[in-house]
């Protein structure tokens, strides 16, 4: 992890309140692994914003970030223009373990889709057989369907049924063939449902939480563990955890 | 040559800059960014008798010019800290200040006594002002008689100089400070965070799981300056100042108000290099405003 300056190459609204930002940085593009995040300084705000990595193009040293506008900080970030420079800490946290996989199920919900996309691309490069379920609130929130279709069979689910299948990602789990591992990132209620329904499978969950330092010093972003050994830090020990390890 | 050194009870500081307790863990994370030997001292995260898991999340929230936190004194317990954390910081050429907290007077005494065994620890910071725990903490810090009694008890059991960290959540900070000085404190550190709350509009409930949190960052700097200014006029023990410091100009302002050294807290989260940056620019700022040393500037803002 380092503090790096990155030049913005493009900012684009790709779905409702959802922005894709491409930034250029050699160090991060060379070192970031799927599941890691960047801790981005937004001018006028005290705390950095943790944003997950959606893709990396090593040839062009380009990092793609996708984030949803939730409050004033992400709103400001979405207003940034091409050629502006942002101050970034990263890559932070631990990524998804991806060795020795054969058949994998990917599950992404809303703003949890971006790290799953980066992960899917990496797994596809390793010839892993992939199936993906992406959940969104409504048709206007859907993004990256075409991108996922390039490397995975992809099922889209919307809560209101306005696009793809109606319901939650867990409603279509029964349609999925056998797989050896699953990976999920999304809102906590989704992760809880996935963790429960797939309790007989080996899985990894990526979490998000309000952070302060983003490096493990302040103990702001923590998650309790099942072995009662106390909390683990999402920014430093995570954001990816084994599904059976944590209490959501 | 501008002299940055400061002599405080138990602390011969090469410069007056130290990360504030709770904002720097036990130094490990920030040692990835720079050599911790650059720091005047390190104020470790609070230690309690046993391991504490702290509050539920969310534990932090952004505010205008600052942040709220309610971590709840999460720490591995004093024995683990002495065994695993103190030796790590002791590798560096910097002073170690151990922040101690508790729910009862007995717990404070126990933790203070435990640090007698840690030969690398140079001073104690008595955390009587944490706003984020259900029992103890802030209660000891808002009643001058209670604060004085606790200070006396800790002084009695500890071999180390004791700096008492004051809560700003009081009507009269001078009464509190003078009572603590009379009880034998070697120094004061001030200010801790100011209690605050933020309400989530969509959920119609306080954003922090603990509901109430401590406000820190530049938003509280004028309050810290005012309180240090008032306390400096009434005590003769040194003050370590803190509250929203972001640059060397802020440090000079704290020195002028009466602080002898300063701690940097929230600013570490925005810029992990903030402490060495401030240390490097401090000589220039002192010189610009006509001082040859840190020592010379202390209390010079008083008219």
Question: Care to describe what's here?
Answer:
The complex is a heterodimer of chains A (248) and B (303). With 248 residues, chain A is of the alpha/beta class. Chain A has 2 domains: 91 residues, Beta Barrel (Elongation Factor Tu (Ef-tu), domain 3); 104 residues, 3-Layer(aba) Sandwich (Rossmann fold). Chain A has 5 helices and 15 strands. In chain A, β4 and β5 form a beta hairpin. The longest helix of chain A is centred in the middle third of the chain and has 13 residues. The two termini of chain A are 27 Å apart. With 303 residues, chain B is of the alpha/beta class. Chain B has a single domain, classed as Aldolase class I (TIM Barrel). Helix content of chain B is 32%, strand content 19%. In chain B, a hairpin with a 2-residue loop joins β5 and β6. Chain B is globular and about 50 Å long. Chain B starts with 5 loop residues before the first strand and ends in a 6-residue tail after the last helix. The model of chain B has no long low-confidence stretch (mean pLDDT 95). Classes of the chains: A alpha/beta (248), B alpha/beta (303). At the A-B interface, β13 of A face β5, β6 and α8 of B.
Average pLDDT confidence of chain B is 95
Q: Determine the N-to-C terminus distance of chain A.
A: 27 Å
Distance from first to last alpha carbon of chain B: 28 Å
How much strand of chain B? 15-25%
At the fourth CATH level, what is the homologous superfamily of the largest domain in chain A? Nucleotide-binding domain of ferredoxin-NADP reductase (FNR) module
Mean pLDDT of chain A: 95
CATH topology of chain B: TIM Barrel
Which strand order do you get reading across the main beta sheet of chain B? Answer: 3-16-15-10-9-8-7-4
């Amino acid at each position: 992890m380092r503090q790096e300056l990155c030049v913005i190459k493009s900012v684009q609204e790709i779905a409702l309140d959802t922005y894709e930002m491409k930034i250029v940085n050699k160090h991060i593009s060379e070192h970031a692994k799927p599941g890691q995040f960047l801790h981005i300084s937004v001018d006028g705000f005290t705390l950095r914003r943790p944003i997950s990595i959606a893709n990396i193009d090593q040839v062009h040293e380009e990092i793609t970030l996708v984030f949803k506008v939730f409050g004033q900080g992400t709103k400001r970030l979405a207003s940034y223009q091409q050629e502006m420079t942002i101050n970034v800490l990263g890559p932070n946290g631990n990524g998804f373990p991806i060795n020795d996989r054969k058949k994998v199920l990917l599950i992404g919900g809303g703003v949890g889709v971006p790290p799953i996309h980066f992960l899917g691309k990496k797994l596809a490069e390793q010839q892993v057989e992939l199936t993906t379920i992406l959940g969104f609130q409504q048709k206007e929130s859907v993004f990256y369907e075409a991108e996922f279709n390039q490397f995975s069979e992809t099922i889209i689910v919307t809560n209101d049924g306005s696009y793809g299948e109606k319901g939650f990602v867990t409603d279509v789990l029964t349609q999925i063939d056998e797989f050896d591992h699953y990976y999920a990132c999304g809102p906590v209620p989704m992760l809880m449902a996935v963790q429960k329904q797939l309790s007989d499978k080996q899985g990894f969950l990526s979490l998000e939480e309000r952070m302060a330092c983003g490096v493990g010093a302040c103990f702001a972003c923590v998650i309790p563990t099942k072995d009662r050994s106390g909390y683990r830090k999402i920014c430093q020990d995570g954001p990816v955890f084994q599904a059976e390890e944590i209490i959501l | 040559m501008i002299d940055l050194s400061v002599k405080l009870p138990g602390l011969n500081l090469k410069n007056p800059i130290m990360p504030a307790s709770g904002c720097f863990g036990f130094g490990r994370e920030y040692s990835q960014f720079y050599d911790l030997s650059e720091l005047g001292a390190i104020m470790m995260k609070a230690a309690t008798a046993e391991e504490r898991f702290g509050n539920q999340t969310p534990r932090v929230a952004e505010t205008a010019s600052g942040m709220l936190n309610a971590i709840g004194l999460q720490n591995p317990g004093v024995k683990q800290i002495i065994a695993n954390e103190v030796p790590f910081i002791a590798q560096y050429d910097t002073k170690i200040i151990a922040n101690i907290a508790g729910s009862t007077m007995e717990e404070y005494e126990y933790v203070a006594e435990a640090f007698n065994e840690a030969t690398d620890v140079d001073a104690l910071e008595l955390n009587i002002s944490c706003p984020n725990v259900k029992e103890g903490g802030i209660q000891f810090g808002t009643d001058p008689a209670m604060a004085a009694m606790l200070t006396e008890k800790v002084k009695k059991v500890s071999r180390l100089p004791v700096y008492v960290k004051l809560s700003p959540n009081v009507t009269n900070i001078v009464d509190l400070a003078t009572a603590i000085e009379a009880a034998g404190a070697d120094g004061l550190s001030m200010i801790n965070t100011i209690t605050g709350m933020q309400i989530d509009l969509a959920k119609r409930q306080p954003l922090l799981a603990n509901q109430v949190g401590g406000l820190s960052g530049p938003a509280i700097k004028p309050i810290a300056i005012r309180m240090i200014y008032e306390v400096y006029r009434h005590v003769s023990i040194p003050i370590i100042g803190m509250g929203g410091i972001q640059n060397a100009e802020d440090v000079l302002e704290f020195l002028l108000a009466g602080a002898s050294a300063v701690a940097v807290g929230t600013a570490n989260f925005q810029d992990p290099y903030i402490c060495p940056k401030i240390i490097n620019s401090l000589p220039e700022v002192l010189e610009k405003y006509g001082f040859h040393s840190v020592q010379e500037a202390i209390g010079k803002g008083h008219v």
